[in-house]
């Protein structure tokens, strides 16, 4: 895949002139870091499972150990991965142009953060953040009284007193996105001059609605994806390249 010089010059010009650049990334952003995209067939022992079953509250309640193990293996995979040239190009551009970039991601890995990007808007939560599955019946506000001091390594931690379980702090299918993150993403989409969409199929809303929001607000929309996506028709320019190769060319 290569981007034509004409398209590259056009996209670079739009970005150079942009007062505000909004970047929205999906799983393809981390593919060249060795983190499988969400709709890649799950590898190895997980191949027989459907992520859309595992990444749900019902799936976790049905088999906490299985889902906990799946997230543990994903955490291990991400911990061994390194940010790729695309993550680094985004972080470097943000550093060189303070206050001009809002970076939004659907990804739950921490590769943008480890590359040095600041204030990443994490629409789907994070792999390395846990939270309680249920509100504790004894909770009167402040810090929940539940504790996991007796947790067994490798098993889903739970509270010995009320039985509440710890769950991964990611947004599961059917769950609402964190309100503050979604508001920040919509504000950035409405206020940007260029929306750069990287490595997402555009299959899942509300994240997939951000490029249209930006276009309707007058922004130029640029899609960077080696494959066709559901967002191509919303784009003013589609660049057939990968994140790790294309972003360093774009963000000079
Ligand atoms: N560079 C850029 N894009 C790539 C690369 C790459 N090296 N490799 C693959 N892609 C593209 C694919 O062409 C595809 O369009 O990345 C996209 C990945 O699509 P999905 O797997 O659907 O991931 P994503 O769009 O992030 O999924 C959205 O859906 O399943 C939920 O919560 C989950 O955050 C996820 C959301």
TrEMBL record:
Pfam families assigned: SIR2
Entry binding sites for substrate: 71, 74
Q: Which InterPro entries match?
A: DHS-like_NAD/FAD-binding_dom (IPR029035), NAD-dep_sirtuin_deacylases (IPR050134), Sirtuin (IPR003000), Sirtuin_cat_small_dom_sf (IPR026591), Sirtuin_class_III (IPR027546), Ssirtuin_cat_dom (IPR026590)
Keywords assigned: Cytoplasm, NAD, Transferase
Transferase as a keyword of this entry, yes or no, is: yes
Judging by the UniProt lineage, the source's domain of life is: Bacteria
What PROSITE patterns does the entry give? SIRTUIN (PS50305)
Q: Which reaction does it catalyse?
A: N(6)-succinyl-L-lysyl-[protein] + NAD(+) + H2O = 2''-O-succinyl-ADP-D-ribose + nicotinamide + L-lysyl-[protein]; N(6)-acetyl-L-lysyl-[protein] + NAD(+) + H2O = 2''-O-acetyl-ADP-D-ribose + nicotinamide + L-lysyl-[protein]
From the Swiss-Prot or TrEMBL record, state where the protein is found: Cytoplasm
EC number(s) on record?
2.3.1.286
Name the predominant localization.
cytoplasm
Which Gene Ontology cellular component annotation is one that this UniProt entry carries? cytoplasm
Q: Where is the Deacetylase sirtuin-type domain?
A: 1-252
Entry keyword NAD: yes
- Where along the chain is the active site annotated? 124
GO MF annotation list: histone deacetylase activity, NAD-dependent; NAD+ binding; protein-malonyllysine demalonylase activity; protein-succinyllysine desuccinylase activity
Q: Which amino acid positions bind NAD(+), per UniProt? A: 106-109, 199-201, 225-227, 243
Q: Into which EC class is this enzyme placed?
A: transferase
HAMAP family xrefs: Sirtuin_ClassIII (MF_01121)
* Family (UniProt): Belongs to the sirtuin family. Class III subfamily.
Please give the record's comment on domains: 2 residues (Tyr-71 and Arg-74) present in a large hydrophobic pocket are probably involved in substrate specificity. They are important for desuccinylation activity, but dispensable for deacetylation activity.
What is the role of this chain? NAD-dependent lysine deacetylase and desuccinylase that specifically removes acetyl and succinyl groups on target proteins. Modulates the activities of several proteins which are inactive in their acylated form.
| Name of the protein in its database record | NAD-dependent protein deacylase
Protein species of origin: Caldimonas brevitalea
């Amino acid at each position: 895949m290569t981007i034509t010089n004409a398209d590259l010059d056009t996209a670079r010009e739009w970005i150079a002139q942009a007062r505000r650049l909004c970047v929205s990334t999906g799983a393809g952003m981390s593919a060249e870091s060795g983190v499988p995209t969400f709709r890649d067939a799950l590898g190895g022992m997980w191949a027989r499972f459907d992520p859309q079953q595992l990444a749900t509250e019902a799936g976790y309640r049905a088999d906490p150990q299985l889902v906990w193990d799946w997230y543990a293996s994903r955490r291990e995979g991400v911990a061994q991965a390194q940010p790729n040239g695309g993550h680094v190009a985004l972080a470097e551009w943000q550093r060189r142009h303070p206050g001009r970039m809002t970076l939004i991601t659907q990804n739950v890995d921490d590769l943008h953060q480890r590359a040095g990007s600041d204030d990443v808007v994490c629409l789907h939560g994070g792999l390395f953040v846990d939270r309680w599955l249920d509100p504790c019946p004894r909770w009167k506000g402040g810090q929940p009284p539940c504790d996991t001091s007796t947790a067994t390594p490798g098993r889903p931690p739970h509270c010995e007193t009320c039985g509440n379980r710890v769950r991964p702090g990611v947004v599961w299918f059917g769950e609402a996105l964190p309100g503050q993150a979604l508001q920040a993403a919509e504000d950035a989409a409405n206020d940007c001059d260029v929306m750069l969409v990287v490595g997402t199929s555009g299959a899942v809303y509300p994240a997939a609605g951000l490029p249209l929001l930006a276009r309707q607000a007058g922004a130029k929309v640029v899609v960077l994806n080696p494959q066709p996506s559901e967002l191509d028709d919303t784009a003013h320019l589609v660049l057939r390249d990968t994140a790790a190769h294309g972003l360093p060319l774009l963000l000079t």
